[in-house]
Amino acid sequence: MTGAALEVSGLRFAYPDGQRALDGLDLSVESQERVALLGPNGAGKTTLALHLNGILTPESGTVTIGEQVVDESNVMEIRRRVGLVFQDPNDQLFMPTVADDVAFGPANLGLSPAAVEERVTEALSAVGVADVGRRPPHHLSGGERRRAAIATVLSMRPDILVLDEPTSGLDPAGRRELVEVLAGLEMTQLVITHDLPFALELCPRSVIVDGGRVVADGATPQILADARLLSRHRLEMPFGFTAPRHQDFL
Predict the structure, then answer these.
(1) Which residue of 21, 28, 29, 39 is surrounded by the most CB atoms within 10 Å?
(2) Strands of the chain, DSSP E
């Protein structure tokens, strides 16, 4: 063991139609690292995310969270430890109020009402929406819904936060607020995104996945400054945006 928060080794997976999504993927993420997972559509990024908390089971290879290899015997504990935030907040906000949504996971752990309420307050405060608990989710702005969805995961007090396209559909203000929230969370984060400036702002390290394998891994400024690398894997910086070639990224 390396002491990594997350270790993926030789992961292989194909869907029932024969489409191979992961082809011997290896990845290691240290505790409290923020890592951007980049790559074209169909590269295997979301499939990888679904393996990290046992939603999908690999054909071969292993996923290790801390000291635990993910398998059927510990999948419930793994799902508590690895919080997955889906691309569409509506997949995680389905109760009458935001507070009900955030309480859903802790309540199912069998915690006391007082402990559940403490988790709800803590999670909503952590994402900067402490005042929306009584509101229906559909009354929130897009940015508020995104942060409320993250709160539903944080209320489980996970070790690792995995986010799938977290800036999708956000306006500039909502995007900026999300960067501030995620940068303030002292926990391991794996962020799947096509938003390369967002990756640069948030994640010191970036990994490119293509064809079900890791094809590049390094400091985000260096990865994003390599125009040939980005083009080869169907990634583009926005028009007029130039990634810095040399800087310390802390």
Answers:
(1) 39
(2) 6-14, 20-29, 34-38, 60-65, 68-69, 82-85, 160-164, 188-192, 205-210, 213-219
